[in-house]
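Hi support team,

I'm opening this ticket because the web form for multi-chain structure prediction keeps timing out on my end. I have pasted the exact lines I submitted so you can reproduce it. The total is 1033 residues across two entries, so I didn't expect it to be a heavy job. Is there a limit I'm missing, or should I split the entries? Thanks in advance, R.K.
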Amino acid sequence: MMITPRQAMDGYLSGRAARPVLAPFVERLAARVTGTSYQAMGADAGNYTAALSKTANLLGLDAVVVGADDTLLAEALGATIVWRDGRPELGAPPLALADEPAMQARLKVAIEAASRLFQVIRGAQGCIAAMTGPATLASQIYGQAGMADGLSALKPALVSVAEAYCKTRPDILLLLETQSHLSAGDSRLRRTLSAIKNVASYYDVRFGIYAASYVPADLAAFNADVIVLGGDESLMPEAVSALGQSSSPLGLALPMGRGACADIIRSIQDTSKSETMFLLTSSGDIAADADIERLRNELSQLRELR
Amino acid sequence: MGFNIGIDIGGTFTDCFVTGDSGLILACKTPTTHYDLSVGFMKGMRELARLSGKPLDVFLSETDSVRYSTTVGTNAVIERTGPKLGLITTAGFEDTIFLGRARNWADGVSMAEMRDQARIRKPEPLIQPDMVVGIRERMDSAGQVLMPLSREDVLEKVQALVDRGAMGFVVSLLWSFMNPEHEHMVKEIIEEEYPEDYLGSLPVVLSSDVSAKSGEYPRTMTAIVNAYIHGVMADEINKLSNELRDSGFKRPITLVHNTGGTKKASRTRAVLTHNAGPVAGMYGAAFQGRSTGDQNIVFTDMGGTSFDIGVIANGEMKSHDFIPVIDRWRTNIPAVEVKSIGAGGGSIAWINKLMGNALEVGPQSAGSMPGPACYDQGGAEPTVTDADLVLGFYNPDNYLGGKMLLDPDLAAEVIEKKIARPLGLSVAEAAWRIRRLVDAQMGQETFNEVALKGHDPRIFSLYACGGAGAAHACDFAGYIGIKRIVAPFSSSVYGAFGASIMKIKEVWERSRSLKIFQWARQKYLDDIESFNRPVRELKELAIRDLRLEGYDERQIKFTLELDMRYGSQYNLTKVTSPRLEIASADDFRELCELFMARYAEIYSAEAGFPQGGVNIEGFFLTAEVMTEDPRLPVEKSAPATPESQAHKGKRAVFWEPKEGYVDTDIYDWTALHPGNMIAGPAIIESPQTTFVIPKGWQFSMDTFRNGILERTDVAVAKQPERIGSLS
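Hello R.K., no limit was hit. The queue was backed up. Here is the completed structure from your submission:
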């Protein structure tokens, strides 16, 4: 019997996934699909919503991720953005943190888009709201040296943005730790994550962390409901083994579009002796010029993995 | 095994309680999810299922009843999320709801707001002036038609309301409680014009259906509030019913009423759900009082957002003697009287710069989101819970049985920043003052409700309920002079407990004016049918209604109360009639004597005025389905000294500034047994609440596992013996 995207997502979240859940980051691709620039798409919630919805249906995705751009929150706090080849890059950090970041710049549009999109697709597909994680944000704003004190200053902003996203009622709030090493020994980081988790829990939203740089044995200490393993693929089997003892659903961020994901997954399962069904996302936003047909074929192949 | 589930939605927590046929008892608390109350509700169901050791669908399929006390309706009024309604009234009386009654601009506001004469305003009306139309019709005070209704006039006025966007109608005509014929005709005309099976059909609410009582303004407002919240409540209940059905519970949901009973949702008027939670708690206290021997109870419930107070005198809940206000609207629903103030664990402490930097607590609350600072959900304001944590009364690892870990550093940080530093105090002293202030507020309000309303607090026991009740009761009881406190075994979820055991019950009421004694002629009323007819009509209504719930007349117990007064006095006094039917003038004499005795009890014998004659102004028939009371489990008594494993160690607690932090014994409630006694100062931790026992108090546990707290430095007054049955 065919499993619908919603059924796949529900099964995954309850620890009874019958197949992998497909949820790559497709924002730039979505802009191309609807014939607009990524910058223009991110300026209008209507276009943003329509683009993601259309692209998710085109690719047959099980869940749609909104906000998978780790410059959104820094920009909302006042950092400058430089657009290069249609991609945003962080410029100068803010002199002072802006108030109410959820109401600023492109982040405001992303949250509004999430609200509209999730209302429409919730019954049929999974909903994932993504935002920059605290460690990554602190390093973006304060640099590596200022991270520890920066976390305290950033906590209210992170909590308020998390709440704004949670109000859109996603299935998962995914914190993107794409640029910083996650250290379980950092008590301030753990407290910040714990506060965000409490907010997510209030809204009945699963709290997820996308970890690009980590020590596998440390991941359980973050107490996340969902952990998506990114970064170095060689660490993934050890992380899967370590986390396999807990009942938390796992995810893998893989280089989608090259046709190699299925082999990577089988290798991880063999090495870790795990039969876990994963949430599969992409290691970074899929390129706007990706071969859509090839991507569709790869996703179909992944959908059949058991 | 049939489960009976009670759910009480509070401002901060959603409480759940289960009783099972085999004596099983389960309880849990989850944060109230204001964005969608059903989320917190279902979280509670899942937790109860987990505690029962069964999957959710199995647990719910074995559940006999779900009794739900909700704030959805009240929230809709406060937040103004109801529909646009049109009001149809008698021509010439279109301004009644805007004029209101006397100083109804002060209804539902605090004393401080009331005194702010420069700023106080009448509230924005629920129905705007352009949505009120007057139709040509008139009845007299006996219900005789003076001017018949004109169909054309009604149609024209209704069309005007529809053109202005009305999504429903409230019909409230003069004297309709004496003769509802014209209101029924208006409804028929609207339903002919906008039939139910058409898309354009519009709901119609009649004041004579909702509240057949005199008092044009409260009757109309009762009907308006009912219509205003009806749609929002119906949507919520339907949604919840569907979720429960999908999860295994296939029966109808039962709603808790503020009259002290429950009915199926399909047989409930929305306006009767307002403030039902505290009433459910009072019901639980009255029930429990019958087993502990407490006839006179001051019921208190200190939750996260509010502090509720009710009085149970001689085993009976005090009701109906006042005008219930819903938000800012005076109504005439026969609700049990419960007073609420904004004082709870989540009440925010702040400095009032306009009052010379005075420390204040509440009425604003941090609610469940963000909650107290120590919840670590982004809260940046110090609350009573933060103060209690800093003072050492709470164990940060034991809150909600360990399911929610508190952060004492965050609590201390926010108290230091917002209170201690501006006032030049230490954090501990600032926290102590916050606690003392909220205890004083609660004590004062309780004193007002007890002593200033004619009761002697020395003969009362105080029931300390709510999540924070047992932690504060000994301190605020001091302001009332009460020396015996009962913290029931389910105190932290007491509203849910009360809901789970409430009976099917409704109050049927009607205004009728009868002069039953004339002073000048020294004569009692001859016309006994003028009394018996309205009672009979109410009884027929009650029987018909409860038959639709599935009950037989033989299962119903009727109680008749009467609103009585001397002559044309303003205030009414409620008297319980010893019989449903009057057989002769002697029965009227007996009623008069009962009234005069009750009046003298309240106002003194010298205040009586029989020269004015004695009137009955209202009939209240309570119909209650008699079912067996649940049996609470009883444990065997143990010796006074607790077992050693009950003692968990010591913790530094700040009791008084002059002593500072003092190492205090900590006990585990689950390891205590009936008969155990613990002298203060001590703390007892249970999975759902914390008992704070100051010096001069002693804790003991009774056979029902209720905590009994008694002053040891003064004699405790015995409750007077009451002759007669309580039921």
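A quick check on our side: The interface with chain A takes residues 31, 33, 35, 39, 43, 368-370, 375-378, 380, 407 of chain B (CB under 8 Å). Let us know if the file doesn't open in your viewer.
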